[in-house]
Amino acid sequence: MKLIIDVAYEGNQAKVVGGFFENWFDDSLVKQSIKIVDNVQDYVSGEFYKRELPCILEFLDEVNLKEIELLIIDGFIYLDDERKKGLGAYLYDSLAEKIPIIGAAKSRFYNNTKYVQEIFRGESKKPLYISAIGIELPEASLLIDKMFGKFRLPSLIKQVDTETKNKW
C-alpha cells in the first residue's frame, strides 16, 4: 500500500489527510483518513518541517506502517543543492529510513536543482518538482509522471489535496 499525505492549516489546527492506494494507475483511492491536530506550531520560514512533521507523525501513529511501502508528500526532501534537509528528509529519518518518500511539490524552492527533477504532465506548461529519498529520483519521477490523470497533478494526489481544503 502506498500513502499520499497532505496537510492544511487553520488557526492553530492542522488537517492531515492521508490517501491510500495500491496501484500507480488507479483513478481512486482505496481509502482516505483524516486527522485534526491541535496546537500546531507557528510557521517559521526555512523551518517548515517543524510545523508539518509533528502533524504527519501524529497521523502516522494511527497507521500500520508495516503495510506502507512508500509515502508521497507535498514538499521537498532537500531544500538546496547542499542537501539541507527538508520535510521529506526529516520524515524519512523519523521513520528510521524504512519507508521511501517521494516529494511532489507544485512550486520551486530556491537553489534546489541537484536533488529535484521537473516533470511536465498533461498539457501543463508548469512542472511538478519531484524529489526522493529511499528510492532513486529517476524512478520516483517516472512513477509520479505515469500516475493516473491527464492534468499536472495526478488524480490521486489531487483528491488528497482537495480534501485538505474542504471544510472541517
Brief sketch in words of this structure:
This protein has 168 residues and is an alpha/beta fold.
Question: What report would you give on this structure?
Answer:
The model has no long low-confidence stretch (mean pLDDT 95). This protein has helices at residues 49-60, 87-94, 137-146, 155-165, and strands at residues 2-10, 13-21, 31-37, 70-73, 101-105, 117-119, 128-133. The protein has a single domain (2-165), classed as archaeoglobus fulgidus dsm 4304 superfamily (archaeoglobus fulgidus dsm 4304 fold, 2-Layer Sandwich), CATH 3.30.2170. The protein contains 4 helices and 7 strands; from the N terminus they run βββαβαβββαα. With 168 residues, the protein is α/β, with parallel strands linked by helices. A hairpin with an 8-residue loop joins β6 (117-119) and β7 (128-133). The protein is globular, with a radius of gyration of 15 Å. It holds the Pfam family Endonuclease_5. Keywords: Endonuclease, Hydrolase, Nuclease. InterPro entries: Endonuclease-V. This is Endonuclease V. One of its GO terms (molecular function) is endonuclease activity.
Shape: globular
The share of residues in extended strands comes to 25-35%
Q: What class, by secondary structure content?
A: alpha/beta
How many distinct beta strands?
Answer: 7
Percent helix, as a range, is: 10-25%
CATH architecture: 2-Layer Sandwich
Estimated radius of gyration: 15 Å
Average residue-wise pLDDT? 95
Count of all domains: 1
